[in-house]
Design brief:
Layout: H1 2-74, H2 76-92, E1 105-112, H3 115-126, E2 129-135, E3 138-145, E4 148-155, E5 158-159, E6 162-163, E7 168-174, H4 178-187, E8 191-199, E9 203-209, E10 215-221
Parallel strand pairs: 1-4, 7-10
Antiparallel strand pairs: 1-7, 2-3, 3-4, 5-6, 8-9, 9-10
Amino acid sequence: MAKTKAAAKTKAPARAKAPARAKAPARATAAVKAKAAVKAKAAVKAKSAVKAKAVGKAKAGATAAATRRRGSVAAPAPRAKRAVAKVAAPSARPPKAAVAPPPAWAWHEVMTSDVAGAKAFYAALFGWSAQDVQMPSGPYTIFTKGTEQVAGAMAIPQVDGKPVCNPHWLSYVAVADVDATVTRATELGARIEVAGMDIPGVGRFAILGDPTGATLAVYQRA
């Protein structure tokens, strides 16, 4: 009996402690594995975050580069337009020195051997009306269009029963001084067809032939 009780006393603690010793390492191992798993997950998350940042930076860099490229390509267009505008401006507004004033034509008249025929012709052609007036040199016809005087007509003067010229149109150029113009014209090779004459209440005129033979008149308003 004593041996049996002693054996029982000796075996009892071994049975009670065996499970505790076996479970302790298992719990420790499980805790280590859990911590390792947490660390692994944290490492994975950190790597993912780093990759996401890297991708974001790469996309931002690509977008900025594309924007710069588009800007560099599109920029020349406005400069080209400005260049075209600068080239076109001179043709639109030429320098004043390059623009010649229009001829100062003062009057036009037809010298004709048939005044009545001239009236009928220009009335039918241009719709002109004719008004006869008496000038110091003789009868004179003024052509009008509406209320505007546009031209004149007169019979060709005669000397010894012969006309002094053939029928033609004569144009008058307005000048400041008829006599000074005649003097300058003769210096340049013109001939005097009719010397300076006054028309009372109208002005002064002269008729010239240029060096090529063409005839024109100069007129100074009274």
